[in-house]
Amino acid sequence: MESDNKMMNKPAHILLIYTGGTIGMIKDFETGTLKNFNFDELLDQIPEINFLYCTIETISFKEPIDSSNMNPDYWVELASLIENNYEDFDGFVVLHGSDTMSYTSSALSFMLENLSKPVIFTGSQLPIGDLRTDAKENLITSIQIAALQDHGKPFIQEVGLYFEYKLYRANRTTKINAEHFQAFSSLNYPPLVESGVHLKVNKEALLKRENKEPLIVHKNLVSHILLIKMFPGIDMTTIDHLFSFQQMKGMVLETYGSGNVTNRQWFIDAIKKIVDRGIPVVNVTQCSGGSVNMGMYDTSAHLKKIGVISGKDCTTEAALAKMMYLLGEGIPSDKFKSAFETSLRGEMA
Ligand code: ASP
Predict the structure, then answer these.
(1) Which uninterrupted H or E stretch holds 228?
(2) Known active-site residue 262
(3) Do domains 2-217 and 225-340 have the same CATH topology?
(4) Across the strands, what pairs with 36?
(5) Catalytic residue among 22, 104, 122, 285
(6) Which end of the chain is less enclosed by CB atoms within 10 A, N or C?
(7) Architecture of the domain defined by 225-340
(8) What is the distance between the alpha carbons of residues 186 and 166, in angstroms, rounded to a whole number?
(9) Where are the alpha helices (DSSP H) in 19-113?
(10) pTM for the complete prediction?
């Protein structure tokens, strides 16, 4: 794939955006904690990128962050950086902490409508200066993937997440491990590219652009959302307290198995009250794989009846991002269910 790329295409022009994260951190020897350090020093650690078949420019957040501090304002900053540089580059690689990478990359997938260039998120479990680091492979291969072209057009035309030899569709991923180099999984969708001796692109799995419309960047995100994870023992007092949140604009309910919750009357009434207030409630499963199927069991049929939206096989990260995006678009409550249950960026089956 890389040799074909060289024979058939001009070198791609890639923008590398550094937001922060372990990949660029260094140990503070006084406190023993990992802190952000200078982006230019980061690039000095990998002279290998000068040998890649592409040209690279870099840009960094003024103050790089640990991604645990990520929020929708930073998502807008990132989307604006891509928007402002969109015409000048063939692809974008975003260096980001792994902790909230699935949230940010899911959000960007909704914010960047009609994307026709690759936006590849990556990071690492060990800092780039560490002898055993996974950062070099992740970074180098992410740039190579962002630079892959087919007759002058980018192969990847969507937001991806590359980690430990696999490129996934970003809005299908979840961080599953705080220690293994294989930190992410995408149980409901196959990898888009696998990196071995060769880069193997799974063409069938790639998002196909249906139109040639120009990029639209959506920057209105509504984040007054409640995420409720069901657990045996969650009781009426807790639910009443949480559900009385007056500014709430949407709710994501993380349910058991194929979308099941208790069918005790107090719980059904509490959810119905929220739905009757015109607040969208989306049902996603706590399982890492599989789909919500409301009505399969009696313990989900009542949710369907009162108008709860099916998150189908969406991850929690993608469901939250999609909710923020659709609320920001001002979709009226009677249209919200059908808008949410339609796949917009390949985030659901
Ligand atoms: N705490 C770090 C962050 O998310 C972890 C990492 O980069 O992987 O920024």
Answers:
(1) strand 225-229
(2) no
(3) yes
(4) 25
(5) 22
(6) C
(7) 3-Layer(aba) Sandwich (3.40)
(8) 10
(9) 39-44, 72-85, 101-111
(10) 0.95
